[in-house]
Design goal:
Layout lengths: L2 E7 L3 E10 L2 E11 L3 E3 L2 E4 L1 H18 L3 E7 L5 E5 L2 E3 L2 E2 L10 H7 L2 H8 L8 H10 L8 E4 H10 L6 H5 L13 H7 L15 E5 L2 E4 L5 H8 L8 E4 L3 E7 L6 H5 L3 E4 L4 E7 L3 H10 L5 H10 L19 H8 L7 H27 L5 E5 L6 H11 L2 E5 L3 H15 L1
Parallel strand pairs: 1-6, 6-12, 13-17, 17-18
Antiparallel strand pairs: 1-2, 2-3, 4-5, 5-9, 7-8, 7-10, 11-12, 13-14, 14-16, 15-16
Helix pairs in contact: 8-15, 10-13, 11-13, 13-14
Length: 425
């Protein structure tokens, strides 16, 4: 039996999942899970890269104990974040995307290149944490002096395993520096921003073998977790999807990027897929709910929380994508400030969060249909949020679409699918 290992790391946890093909189907088993989260250092939000690498290696060892026949592995994570290098030396800390360090440089970056021009060239929605602004912040802080490379987090982790420095296409597109026309780094944009060209090599595609780790091939999956998740959705048609986790990524596959004025105005992104474009939008997602739980009822099972939200009669809603909810010191206080007639019970807060998410999905679906000129009947939901029957009901009611909730590890399935295809090639 041939086994592959998917290492799927999200902003709150990571998991190692072994996959194999049996009876014409892809079977999986989770063998290791570990916590993840931002840490605060010197007033900034950062990732503990030592801990991430430790857990990656520990999980690989656990996986090989359970499945000695593992022949390959790959790693996916969230997008936009990276580690700088000077030769073989890491330049730390590795900043987390919710850190506020880009605020001062965004206006300066747009003085050099107007956002409308950035969007026309890359098709990437504005987010203050986009890689382009993080690199501009590093440039302003002098961190790029002597830097020879920057590696997005999954590629940095695989570099630590096999020694190969790779820039994988799907994750690179999340940062706002890849040409929507060529699928390579836009070096004219790089020059206009004053960033060093040496940091931007040719991009590599999902399915490429880049090295070995302890006898296992190290393969590039779609290293942006949403890219792998879309590969893992068993769709009957090219319907819209929501990859529902810390973020909710709502989008649809298109043959090519859509970078018109309506897409820019509505802040839609065009990110790399495996042979297609992902036209999608970031929505704040389960971050709202997780942070509320941390404050209001730590450790309470989500089943109980959902039932309290279901029986609440609170009708207030917030703009789920408002900047106030990106990284507040208190999520409860952020909700209170946005609601004139504030919630009173725990159930009220969660009902408000779920209804607000459903309404943001409704708005996004309406924009999607307008911008693509297509009508869709179904909406597929995968990831942790797909298990929330109450949110699924609210989403179906708000969007008017048939919601097909698939509480599967779609990201790991997509990661594994790419590996198995590569091993057959």
């Amino acid at each position: 039996m041939q086994y592959c290992l998917a290492i799927d790391i999200g902003a709150s946890s990571g998991r190692h999942i072994v996959g194999w093909q049996e009876g014409g189907a892809l079977r999986t088993e989770e063998v290791y899970r570990f916590p993840n989260g931002v840490t605060e250092a010197d007033g900034h939000l950062t990732w503990d890269t030592d801990a991430l690498l430790h857990h990656v290696k520990t999980g690989i060892a656990k996986a090989r104990e359970a499945f000695p026949g593992i022949v390959s592995l790959s790693i996916d994570t969230w997008g936009v974040d990276y580690v700088l290098l000077r030769g073989e030396e890491d330049v730390l800390p590795c900043y987390a995307y919710r850190d506020s360090r880009t605020e001062a440089v965004i206006p300066r970056a747009h003085e050099k290149v107007a956002f409308s021009e950035m969007y026309r060239r890359t098709g990437i929605q504005f987010q203050p944490f986009n890689t382009v602004y993080q690199l501009c912040a590093d440039q302003a802080a002098g961190r790029l002096e002597g830097a020879t490379d920057f590696l997005m987090l999954p590629c940095w982790l695989m570099y630590k395993l096999c020694g190969a420095k790779a820039h994988e296409y799907t994750n690179a597109t999340t940062g706002g520096l890849v040409s929507a026309q060529t699928g390579e780094y836009d070096l004219e944009l790089v020059d206009a921003l004053g960033l060093p060209r040496r940091l931007f090599p040719k991009l590599r595609r999902p399915g490429e073998v880049i090295g070995e780790y302890e006898g296992m091939k190290v393969i590039l999956c779609a290293t942006h977790d949403t890219g792998s998740a879309v590969e893992g959705i068993p769709m009957e048609e090219d319907a819209p999807y929501i990859s529902s986790g810390t973020w909710s990524l709502l989008g649809v596959k298109t043959a090519s990027p859509i970078t018109d004025a309506a897409s820019e105005l509505a802040n839609w992104s065009n990110e790399g897929g495996v042979g297609y474009n992902r036209y999608q939008k970031n929505i704040m997602g389960m971050w709202l709910v997780n942070r509320l739980r941390d404050e209001l009822c730590p450790g309470r099972p989500f089943g109980e929380i959902v039932e309290e939200a279901r029986v609440s009669s609170f009708e207030g809603t917030v703009d789920a994508n408002a900047a106030a909810f990106l990284a507040p010191e208190s999520m409860k206080a952020a909700f209170d400030a946005a609601l004139p007639a504030g919630p009173r019970t725990v159930g009220d807060y969660f009902r408000c969060a779920y209804r607000s998410l459903a309404l943001s999905y409704m708005t996004a679906v309406q924009e999607l249909q307008h911008n693509t000129g297509r009508h869709y009947d179904r909406l597929y939901i995968v990831g942790g949020g797909a298990k929330n029957t109450f949110l699924n009901e609210l989403t179906e009611g708000a969007t008017g679409k048939q919601v097909i909730a698939l509480p599967i590890e779609a990201t790991a399935l997509g990661n594994l699918k790419i590996q198995f295809f590569a091993m057959k090639a």
